[in-house]
Each structure stands twice: as structure tokens, then as C-alpha cells.
Structure to design on (377 residues):
């Protein structure tokens, strides 16, 4: 019983998070300006991180926690570099 | 449908937090799609990054604490990390976009800062 | 006290780094505590090389009150912004920029205020001008800008000034 409840709600959460990622990708493709694309990419990263945490709950392994942390870190560094690039036209000053 | 075998109360609690967090995150991403201009869209991702992340992490904490029979709160690290980094990216994007709009001279951003509101 | 400061320049940072290490490794064994202490010690001395501006933290009671308020406001503003997103076209076009004068000057206080304002959906920190002490914000639901000024000054700024100044 409890396995069924948890299994179905994890599936539901995964579907919802995938839809959220799809919205972020749509914004990324639509633009219209570079900053809109970057914010889409940033949201995509955060949603992917949450999807990994959800996957971790399904598998019951704490391994996914590290993966989620790394994805969050990559998303942060990537977005900061892109925002910096928008401001000045170069990443490292 | 594989899932960890939790007691019923924990399964219901974890399911609730998980689905609520995913819904809030989806709402934020829908906002990214529906809101009319860039500066309004800046408000949308912080839904997923605050409440959405918080709820999903609480679900994960309950799940692993019950599974392993001891309090396991390492998800706090993800929460802390996201709370500190999201404002940095959003502030950088806001100021970069303001700078670009002003250099191009389009009317997405005001030409001058609005005067401070006095009470 | 001064001797402790000479060996360990930032005791709070030391504890925070050690706590983070133990959370990351998910264990409380003596070896991990020792390794974490060494890393935290190195982190503290790296901080000395970076030479951050001096600041101080006071009044744990005020900190707890601030944390409670922020928690509540994040919850409420999530609901408010959610209803705006799902609402009609008319409700989504009230966004706008506004400015306000801040009395808070401590850089750490300003950093915490920036995190609070950006993390609560609905308000977005855009720019702070330290010479005029004016903060520019973008607000999603800008119907009454005085309401926002009052909220920020009364709910957050007064507590932040108690804590950091």
C-alpha cells in the first residue's frame, strides 16, 4: 500500500518537474533576448536538480544527493559566467 | 513502480511534500512562460528555487531519515546552496539586462532610476 | 579571547565549515571530525588572506525573529506570485521599477537584505547606489509603492540594523 502511494506520487512529481523543464526549454528557445534565454537555462538547471533529488527518493540511495549538488553548482557557475558575458562582452576581466 | 518501503504515515507525508514541491516548481516555470517581459520573468524562477526546493528537500529528508533510522539532514546543504546562489544569478542578470537596455536605449527599462519613494 | 583569535581568527566560520563537512560526509566519526577541523582551519586562514571588511553579529533573538518573518513571507509571496501567474492578463502587467532610501549601511546587512528580497518572489533587487544610499527594486505587483517601502523598512531593515549595526 505505502509503496504504491509513494511510487505513484514520485511518478507524478517526476512528470510535473519534466513539464517544468519543458517550460524552461520553451523560454530558452523562444527568447526573445539573450537574457531571457539565460534565465530559461538557469531554471532548467534548478528543475533538473530537483528531478535528481526525486530520483534519489525513488531509488533510496543517497548517491543522487551528490549529483544534485554538482548540477546545482554547474548551473550557478554557468549562469554567472553568461550574465557576466552579457554585461561586458567577456567573461574574465 | 519501485519505491522504498516506508511506513504508511511516512509515505503519505513524503508524497505530499514531493507533489506540492513539484507543483510549486511547475508554477514558477509556467510563470517563466506566461509573464510578459524580462523583468517580470525574473520573479518566476525564485518560486521553484525557494518553496519548491524546500518542499522537495523536506520530502527527501523525511524519506532518508525513516529509511536509515537516524536523522539525516544533508539535504540542508542543497537548500543553503540554492538560497545563496539564486539571488546572485538573478541580481547579476537583472543588472546586466538593465545595462544592456540602457545602452541600446529601448524602453524595456526606464532611462533614469525612479525617484525614491518617501513615506 | 585574544589568544583564541590569534589561533582561530573566525570561530563562527570555523564551526560553519566543520558542520558543512560533517553534513557532506554524513558521519560523526573521530577521523571525519579531525579532517573537517583541518579543512575548516585552512578555510579560516584563507579568509584572513582575503581580508573581508569587519562586521559583527549581535542579538540572536532578532536573528530568530528575522528568520521566522522571512520564512513566513517566502511562503506568502509564493502564493501571491502563483496567483498572479495563473491570473488574468490584467494582473500580470502591473510590474514596475521603484526606489527607496535605506538607512542600513553595513555591507553584510545589505547582502542579507539582497538575499531576502530576491528570494521572496515578487520583489527583485536591481541596484544599490551606496553614495546616495538608494536601492532600486523591481516589483511584480506594483500597485502601491508605499506599501512595499513600509514592508521592507519595518519588517526587515529595522531587524537587520539591530543585528549588524
Amino acid at each position: 500500500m505505502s509503496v504504491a502511494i509513494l511510487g505513484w506520487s514520485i511518478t507524478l512529481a517526476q512528470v510535473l518537474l519534466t513539464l517544468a523543464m519543458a517550460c524552461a526549454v520553451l523560454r530558452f528557445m523562444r527568447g526573445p533576448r539573450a537574457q531571457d534565454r539565460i534565465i530559461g537555462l538557469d531554471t532548467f538547471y534548478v528543475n533538473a536538480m530537483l528531478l535528481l533529488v526525486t530520483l534519489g527518493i525513488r531509488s533510496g540511495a543517497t548517491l543522487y544527493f551528490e549529483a544534485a549538488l554538482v548540477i546545482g553548482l554547474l548551473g550557478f557557475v554557468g549562469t554567472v559566467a553568461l550574465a557576466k558575458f552579457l554585461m561586458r562582452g567577456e567573461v574574465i576581466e | 513502480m519501485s519505491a522504498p518501503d516506508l511506513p504508511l504515515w511516512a509515505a503519505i507525508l513524503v508524497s505530499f511534500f514531493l507533489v506540492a514541491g513539484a507543483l510549486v516548481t511547475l508554477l514558477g516555470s509556467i510563470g517563466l512562460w506566461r509573464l510578459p517581459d524580462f523583468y517580470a520573468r525574473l520573479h518566476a524562477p525564485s518560486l521553484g528555487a525557494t518553496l519548491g526546493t524546500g518542499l522537495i528537500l523536506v520530502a527527501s529528508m523525511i524519506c532518508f531519515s525513516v529509511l536509515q533510522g537516524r536523522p539525516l539532514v544533508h539535504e540542508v546543504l542543497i537548500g543553503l546552496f540554492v538560497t545563496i546562489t539564486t539571488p546572485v544569478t538573478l541580481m547579476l542578470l537583472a543588472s546586466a539586462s538593465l545595462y544592456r537596455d540602457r545602452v541600446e536605449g529601448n524602453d524595456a527599462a526606464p532611462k533614469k532610476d525612479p525617484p525614491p519613494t518617501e513615506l | 579571547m585574544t589568544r583564541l583569535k590569534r589561533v582561530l581568527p573566525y570561530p563562527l566560520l570555523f564551526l560553519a565549515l566543520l558542520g558543512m563537512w560533517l553534513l557532506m560526509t554524513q558521519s560523526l566519526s573521530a577521523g571525519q571530525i579531525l579532517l573537517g577541523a583541518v579543512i575548516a582551519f585552512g578555510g579560516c586562514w584563507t579568509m584572513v588572506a582575503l581580508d573581508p571588511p569587519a562586521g559583527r553579529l549581535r542579538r540572536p533573538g532578532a536573528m530568530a525573529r528575522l528568520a521566522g518573518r522571512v520564512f513566513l513571507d517566502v511562503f506568502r509571496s509564493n502564493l501571491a506570485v502563483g496567483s498572479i501567474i495563473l491570473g488574468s492578463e490584467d494582473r500580470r502587467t502591473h510590474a514596475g521599477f521603484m526606489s527607496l532610501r535605506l538607512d542600513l549601511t553595513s555591507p553584510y546587512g545589505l547582502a542579507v537584505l539582497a538575499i531576502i528580497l530576491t528570494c521572496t518572489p515578487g520583489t527583485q533587487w536591481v541596484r544599490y547606489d551606496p553614495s546616495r544610499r538608494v536601492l532600486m527594486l523591481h516589483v511584480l505587483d506594483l500597485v502601491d509603492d508605499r506599501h512595499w517601502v513600509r514592508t521592507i523598512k519595518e519588517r526587515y531593515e529595522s531587524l537587520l540594523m539591530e543585528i549588524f549595526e
The interface with chain B takes residues 20, 23-24, 26, 74-75, 78, 81-82, 84-86, 92-93, 95, 97-101, 114-115, 118-127, 129, 134, 136, 138, 140, 145-146, 148-150, 153 of chain C (CB under 8 Å). Chain C has six helices and three strands. Helices of chain C lie at 2-7, 11-25, 30-50, 60-86, 107-119, 145-164.
